[in-house]
Task: structure prediction
Amino acid sequence: MANTKISAFTAETNVANITGFAAFKTVGGSSTNVRISGSEIESTLNLDNFAVGTLAVDRGGTGQTSYTDGQLLIGNTAGSLVKSTLTASTGISIANGNGSISITNTAPDQTVALTGGTGISTSGTYPNFTITNDSPNQATPAAGSSGQLQYNDGSNGFAATSDMVYTTDQLKVQNTVYLDGNGSSAGIVKLGCEAAGASHYVGLEGPTHSGANAYIIKFPDATPTANQILKVNTVSSSTANMIWAADTDTSIYAANGSLTGARTVTMGSYNLSFASTTAGQEVKFGQNVRIDGQSYNVLETISSVTSWTPDWDSGNVQTMELSGATTINNPSNIEVGATYIIILKQDAEGTHTVSWGSQYKFPAGTAPTITTTANKADVITLIAYSSTVLMCTSVQDFATS
Result:
């Protein structure tokens, strides 16, 4: 402080002139005051007024004035802050930088110690671990027992009856995985989608307890092909053996069946068709057929030919458009008992005649003389008495327009 005078005094009259007290002491039994005069002392105390010294820990300081890269302050029971750095262990490296610390795992595949229980041995390296049951025929340990592989909160455990191996993205259990029910719901195996959390999945659920059923579904060894389905082929004991089969094998046409009651098929706006790729196939009815509507054939029309062999698989009613003399040969695909109709129609010229094969039998053995007027038609009705005899009658002279 400039122009500061410090002097001792005893006269109380000088107290009023004291700018501030720096000390007080007693000398020889008398009180001695120190008077500071001159320029004012600092009226406001702040940290900027301290140029030297170290602030102690118990005053809120660190007790330290210098550091090296990566040092940390760590407290102890003595109330001090000690400078220290992190210590690396096996497989870990630490780099202390200027204002930064980097910690790196240098050995991600190092051996991880796993502890096994009775009959269980463990080995592996990160991230692959192997847990092996050395005594697969031992009794199942009680839930929560030592050495048992547990899940959830440890209240329930896996039975130590099979070998279990965990590899990347795979848990392999040799022999059997048993998912028990929880008292109200059956065990379910869920195959989740690729998204984490399995928000979409396909589940396989066990049967109900009330059904009292226990069985195994055994999948086939063969590789499936497109459009095949799984179906039960045989049942041996409690095992249902599956096979890959064509989808049509499970339709209503796969085997003979019987009705146990009246059934109605409602077609709505759709047609019901029975199609065949093989000529001569039949739809049979063992009893009466009632049709509440029409029963009809598609009219088959044959254009002008000089020689024609009717094929009854093309329809029971067929029309021959005559444009010249025509021979009507013995027909094919005769069904005994069937009724057939041939319509013979003259063209715009008329005068055309027909001759008949040997299987067409007319009354008195004489074929009729057909109408030859232009655009007129005759109707010949045939009943198949046998595979070689068609009993024929004719109705003639029909107008066609």
Remarks:
- The first strand starts at residue 5 and ends at 9.
